[in-house]
């Protein structure tokens, strides 16, 4: 399973690709940061991010796209641009019928460092160690994109198994209710 | 000049087309509201909005796209979806090299009702009157999309003239400074 992780942004948009294997084995494939000039118009910036993501989807053909979930507790102006960038990333994936999953920054940090409150440095150090890189990916957006992909590879199966177990439980409960109702009708 | 106005949203996205003429003459062309199911996945919803906007751009060939500027003072969840929808709208326009302009809700309200604090009902009533429609466009998102297009047609030239005047003033000031500097060098 190959995951393309995206840390969305207009000034810097981190993109990283990681392959998953058996268990927790992961392999680094590629990473880069797309930059768009702050003085360019918003539509042009979104187009540049979109084009870059499309090129990466074509070049690396991931199975899933993992995107950082944007929150709005920070600077409003920045958050709006980030949300718009994440929208065009999700759109590019949807156009290719690729599943898109969103992970919160704390989920990502917890997945790679064990703590949802880890700082950028810790995330960078763990991404470097996990992927056996020779140096810390820079800027932090690059490390974050790889961390997102790792997070998805490690959390994804758990979430999927949980969803499956819940579906089975619901199915069993439904069958049980049906049997009860049938028994009542026979009485 | 033909303007396509978009009141971005995932649950309801208003799209309206208005033609401008001499002075303040405007003509209604079309209006609709794109809806996406609340239980669908975000990427699917963004794709539906994007596809609808692309169809409208192809069908009506506007000269400019006017989009409501999103603020984040409201419900965070809704605002993020709205920002993402506005991002894919801006992207669709940028892909066609169409200019995209953003107008704030209060600019739009002020343009059509004279007050930046007008309510939805007032905006609907004025849009109906300005475009000489037989009934108020419903839901409010449809009226808002038309109001955005009208706002751009009425404000656009003023903003453009203002920007031009400012550019000329800056040019004159620069030339004046250059002359002063040249005069000083000769002294």
UniProtKB/TrEMBL annotation, chains A, B:
Mg(2+) 2 binds at residue 68. GO terms for molecular function: endonuclease activity. Mg(2+) 1 binds at residues 7, 141. It is found in: Cytoplasm. Keywords: Cytoplasm, DNA damage, DNA recombination, DNA repair, DNA-binding, Endonuclease, Hydrolase, Magnesium, Metal-binding, Nuclease. Pfam families: RuvC. Binds 2 Mg(2+) ion per subunit. Its main location: cytoplasm. The active site is at residues 7, 68, 141. Its EC number is 3.1.21.10. It catalyses: Endonucleolytic cleavage at a junction such as a reciprocal single-stranded crossover between two homologous DNA duplexes (Holliday junction). It is an enzyme of class 3 (hydrolase). The keyword Hydrolase applies. CDD domains: RuvC. Homodimer which binds Holliday junction (HJ) DNA. The HJ becomes 2-fold symmetrical on binding to RuvC with unstacked arms; it has a different conformation from HJ DNA in complex with RuvA. In the full resolvosome a probable DNA-RuvA(4)-RuvB(12)-RuvC(2) complex forms which resolves the HJ. PANTHER family: CROSSOVER JUNCTION ENDODEOXYRIBONUCLEASE RUVC. The RuvA-RuvB-RuvC complex processes Holliday junction (HJ) DNA during genetic recombination and DNA repair. Endonuclease that resolves HJ intermediates. Cleaves cruciform DNA by making single-stranded nicks across the HJ at symmetrical positions within the homologous arms, yielding a 5'-phosphate and a 3'-hydroxyl group; requires a central core of homology in the junction. The consensus cleavage sequence is 5'-(A/T)TT(C/G)-3'. Cleavage occurs on the 3'-side of the TT dinucleotide at the point of strand exchange. Belongs to the RuvC family. This is Crossover junction endodeoxyribonuclease RuvC. It comes from Actinoalloteichus caeruleus DSM 43889.
